[in-house]
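Title: Prediction job returns without error message
Component: structure pipeline
Severity: low
Priority: P3
Assignee: unassigned

Description:
Job completed but the reporter wants confirmation the result is attached to the right record. Sequence as submitted:
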Amino acid sequence: MSDLETNRCRICGGTECGVLMDFGPRPITKRLLPTPDASGEFTHHIKLDICHTCGFVQILDTVPERELYSEYALQSTWKPQPHFLDEIAKLKEFAALAPADFIMEIGCNDGSALLSLREQGMVKVLGVEPSSDVAAIAKSRGFDVINDFFNTERAEAVVSGHGLCDLLICRQVLEHVAYLDDFMLAIRAVLKEGGHLMLEVPDFNVPLQYGDVSAIWEEHVNYFTEESLRFLLLKHGFTPVHTCRYDFSGGALTIIARKGYRPTTPPTPPREFASNTMFAQRAAQSAAVVAAFLQQQGYSPREVAIYGAGNRAVILLNRFLGDLVGLVVDDQPEKQGRFLPQSGKRVHPSDSLVKSGIKVCLLAVNAENEEAVIRRNKTFLDQGGSFFSVLSPSRYLIR
């Protein structure tokens, strides 16, 4: 059990939260197994909660951080993020980003974003990364990295040792944070008055629209829409100055905001309960559509593969599609020969599509990678195979 108040909303403080979807005991999604025996797996009961006051969707009973983030390199260094160059351009335009600015990145991972900043002339940068394996990679690239979790105590040490920063970047991190108010206070503590904050989070509006249950990952304890993210920023004295979206990892939402004084009167919370409650119903409908499609086409499980052994594929297989899929393929060498958590399905290289007599392959990779996967598997297509997507948003999505 988390030491959070498990009925209190993280953004509005409302105490009327209820279960939106119950996933039952679930293993750590990214933790592939050396054998198909899953009997010794760590599991945690995952429930997706919704605040009856503001509608914010969240996981209140969280998996312990140390259990999730002790080792992370297997998947965290695999995903290119070309849209960050556009975010840098937006920072130059809307936050007056300049080479002399002191920039801090929370959750710097392997230093890829810091490297892009350095290549753009920004040399005064500092990273914070709790996972020791990827922090070591960032350090090997010549960056100053604090290998720890970020909180108000760590913020004081940063200011003492490095001073206040002009810009703080926090990308694909806030959705993981169980203590949002403490985290935002820590951000304020390290940022100059009038300085800028850039937040990038998964855009929950996308899976909400499609009923895409693959977005519900035990690491993501907060599911932000633009309205809920703006509310959090305003609550802590940040004024949004620019908002943009990217077709990255199922849909990304980025807001650049300027630090000002904290308001004496809290802003009005969003009212998203009615719209967000539709997610569970849409998720069940989406899974039913995939199952009906496979059955109508007459495919047996031994003729169906899923491409991708990442978090979203594992979630779909464990929740809805496990009995419909006979083969799992992935071209990441570190995953091949290992077994998926809970289902125990072995991960094979993609040439198994041809060797195993597969007729249809379900794409469980992000939309920006689908065309590359299809091109790499032209032989499968030439022999009559077909690709369809099970992740939103995608033009190949089964509808």
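Comment from assignee: result matches the submitted record. Residues 73-78 have pLDDT under 50 and may be disordered.
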